[in-house]
Amino acid sequence: MDEAGTAAFRPGCTVSKIETDAATPVRALLQVSGLTKWYGDEIALADVAFDVNVREVLGVIGPNGAGKTTLLEAVAGLLPVDTGNITWRGAPLPRARRREFIFYLPDGIRPYQDQSVARVLAFFAGVYRRSGAHVAEIVAALGLGSVLAKRVHALSKGFNRRLLLALALIAPHPLVLMDEPFDGFDLRQSRAIGDLLRRIAQDGRALVLAIHQLGDAERVCDRFILLSGGRLRGQGTLTALRQRTGLPAAGLEEVFLALT
Amino acid sequence: MRSPEASGIARAPLSPLLAKELAEIVSGRALWAMLLLVCPLVGYSFVQAVSLYGEASLGAEASPVLARSLSPFDGVLVPSFGAFYVAVTLLFPFVAIRVLGQEKESGALRLLVQLPYRPSVLIGAKLAAVAAAWVLCSVPALSALIVWRLLGGHLAPAETLTLLFGHLLYGLLVGAIALFAAALTESAATAAILALAVTIGSWVLDFTLAGRPGLLAWLAQLSLTQVLHAFEQGLLSASLVLGISAAIAGLAVLTSVWLPPGVALRVKLTRSVACIAATAAVIAAASQIRVAIDVTEDGRNSFSPADERLLASLAMPLTATVRLAPEDPRYVDLQRAIFSKLARVMPHFTVRLASPHAFAASGNDESYGEIEYAYGARRDVSRSTSPREILPLIYGLADLPPPAAAPGDDYPGYPLAASAAPALPWFFGALPLLILVGWFLVRRPPRIDSVLILQQAKEDSHGNG
C-alpha cells in the first residue's frame, strides 16, 4: 500500500487515532497559507492557514456560516479566492492541478438522479480505472448492495450520503475533503462510517472533514481547525487545544466555546 | 518552481464519460417528449407536401415542360424538414440544456469538474451527446424519406445528404447555444429562456428585417435561420459550412470557459473576449471563401456547363453596378438567377449597389432599374434579370462567341401523383408507439446490478484462466 492510497482499504480492521502531539515528525501533505475570500464587503475566509498531514483525519469545526464549505471549496479549487497559497509536499499546487491530488465531496448534492446506483458507481470506477473487486468491496463496506438497482432520486438521504462516500472512496486521490460526511446518518450509522473513515486514513489517505456535530468530530478526527466568522480560532489536537484553553478535562464542545 | 509529483490520475479514458453523457440524455423526459411532438409535426407536413406535389404532378403527365419543374427536393423534402426545423428551434434547446443544466442543479457539476478531464473534453462529450440526441430526434423526418421512397418517389443522394447536413449543423448550433446558456446560468429554466431568446429572436429578426437595406440587411444575415437557406437551395457552400462550424466551436470553447466554478469572473471575461474575437476572425475569413458546390440534380444554382467553362476563362474583373433598391424584387431575382451563379464561377466578379440616394432624391429617375456591366474598358447596360439576355451581353463585352448548347443535359423532373394518406397511421400511431416503448425500456429500472456483476464475472474468469 502506498501513501497515495491507491491500494484497496481493508474493511474490518480496527484503527486507533494518531496522536501527533508527541513531537512525532510528520511530513505535511498539503499546506494552506493566507487564504482569504471576500463576498463583496463580507469576509468569508480571513487569512486562514493550516497543514494536512499524511494518514490523518483533520476536522474543520465551526457553526453554520463559519466558512467551512467555503474553505473546502477554495482548497479544492472550486471557488476563486482573493489571496492564498496552497502547496503539495512543499511545491506550489496550482488550481488547475488540484483535482489530481485532492477530491472534494460536496454536501447536499444528489448526482445523476435518473441513473441507477450501479451505473453511477460504474461511471466513477471506469473513470478512475478501478476494478470490479474494489468497487464491490466499497459497496459492501458502505452497505449499498440492497440499492444498487435503485435510481439515485429514489434513495433515502442516508443512502444518498453512502453513495457519495462510495464515490469518494472510488476516487484514488491521496487527500479527500468531505463536507458534512455524517449528515443523514443516525448515531449507530455515524459510528460505523466514522470507523470506516479512520480505516481509510490508516491505509494512507488523508481526510479533511467539515463537521458541525462536535461529538462526531471528536470521535473521528486526529486534529481540528476551529473556524468562526471565516477566521481561524485555533488548531491542533484535542489535547493541545485543551492546554491552550486551560481546560484539561474539557470536551471539544467546551474547547470550541472557549475559543470562539 | 518545483511541481508536485505526478499522481497518475491526470487522464482518464473517454468511454465512461461518453457512456454517462448518452445515458443522461436518453434518460431525460425532454428528448422523448420532443420525439413524440416531432412525429405528428413532420408527418402532417410530409402528407401535405406529398398531396400538393401529387396535384401538381397530375398536370405534368401531359406536359414535359411542367414535369421538368417538379423537383421532390423542393416539393417534398424541404417542406417536410421545415417542420423538423421548427421543432429543433423551439424544443431542442430544452433537450440540450439538460445535458449540463441537470448537473448544475443537482450539484453533480462540482463532481464532474474534478474528474480527470479538461473542460474542453467535458464539453466535447456533451456536444457529442447533443449530436446523438439530434440524430434520435431526426428519426421521424428520416422515416418520411423512407415513406417517400416506398411511395415511388425520387431522392437525389447529393441534395438529400446536403439538406440533412445543413439540418445537422443547425441542430448542433442550437445545441451549442443551449449548452452555453446552461453554463452561464444557474438554473435550467433561466438557460431555456436565454436559449429561446436567441433562437426565436433570430427567427423574428429574419422575418422582420429580411429584404431591408443597409444595416438592417446585415443584421438579418445574423439570423440562425440563414444557416439553412443555402442548404435548402441545394448549395454546399464552403464559407457557410466553415462559418457555422466556427460558431459551434466558438460556443463550445465559451462553454468550457464558463464551466469551471473555480475560475475568477475577470479571467472568464478575458478568455471570453479572446474567444469571441478569434471566432469572429475565423467567420470573417470563412466568408471570403467563394467555393460553393451546386448539388442539385436540376443545376438550379448554375449556368450550363458550357457557359460555366467559358465564364471561368474570363481573365479580367467583371463588375455589375446595380441601380436598384436592395429591397426591390428585381434585385432579389438578379441575385438568385445571375449574380450568385456568376460569383461561383468568376473569382473576379463584383456587384456594386449604386447609392440609393442617387435615385431616391429624384422620384422619376429614368436610370432606376439599370444594371451596368463593366468588363475591362468595355461597358454595357441592361434592365433584364434573365440569364438568356445577360450572358450574351457579357460574352459581347469579352468579345467571345456564346458557347453551343449541349443537348441531353435537361433535368427530366420527377412528377409523382401519389397520396401519403396511408402513411398517417405511421406518423400518428405506430412511430409514437415505438417511441413510447423505447422510452419505457430506457426508464425501466435495471433488474440486476448488471454493470458491477458483469465486470466482476469478467475479472473472475480472467483470474481463473
Walkthrough of the structure:
The complex is a heterodimer of chains A (260) and B (465). By secondary structure, chain A is of the alpha/beta class. Chain A has a domain at 28-114 and 174-259: P-loop containing nucleotide triphosphate hydrolases (Rossmann fold), CATH 3.40.50. Chain A has helices spanning 68-76, 117-127, 132-142, 157-170, 187-202, 214-220, 238-245, 252-259; strands spanning 28-39, 42-53, 57-61, 83-88, 91-92, 102-105, 175-179, 206-211, 223-228, 231-236. Chain A has a six-stranded mixed sheet with strand order 6-7-8-3-9-10, with helices on both faces. In chain A, strand 9 and strand 10 form a beta hairpin. In chain A, helix 2 (117-127) runs parallel beside helix 4 (157-170), helix 3 packs antiparallel against helix 4 and helix 7 (238-245) packs across helix 8 (252-259). Chain A starts with 27 loop residues before the first strand and ends with a helix. The relative contact order of chain A is 0.20. The model of chain A is unreliable at 1-16 and 18-26 (pLDDT under 50). Chain B is mainly α. Chain B folds into two domains: 14-294, no CATH class; 305-397, Glutaredoxin. Chain B is built from 19 helices and six strands. Chain B has helices at residues 14-26, 29-60, 64-68, 72-106, 109-112, 119-137, 139-150, 157-184, 188-209, 214-221, 226-232, 238-258, 265-287, 305-312, 329-345, 356-360, 387-397, 424-443, 450-464; strands at 235-237, 292-294, 318-322, 349-353, 371-375, 378-382. Chain B has a four-stranded mixed sheet with strand order 4-3-5-6, covered by helices on one side. In chain B, helix 2 (29-60) packs antiparallel against helix 4 (72-106), helix 6 crosses helix 8 and helix 9 packs across helix 10. Chain B is globular, with a radius of gyration of 27 Å. The two termini of chain B are 49 Å apart. Mean pLDDT of chain B is 87; it is low at 1-6.
